Amino acid sequence: MENLSIRDYIKESFKGDNENEIKESIEDSIKEGLEEALPGLGVFMEIIWENASEDIKKEILEILKTQLN
After folding, report:
1. pLDDT number for residue 21
2. What residues does each domain of the chain span?
3. Of 39, 37, 50, nearest in space to 7 by CA
């Protein structure tokens, strides 16, 4: 069996999924509060961060700062 990293495994798991399927997975993971979903959500955050403009990054940071206070 091929040795996949967690990142690669999660990316492969969602390859071919449409936006609605990805959204449902995110929302279900959050709603269920599954600890096992945290690495996947982290991979999604990494993908977003690496591909976001500086304005989007600033908005994300503002949301996080507000919610963590």
Report:
1. 97
2. 6-68
3. 39
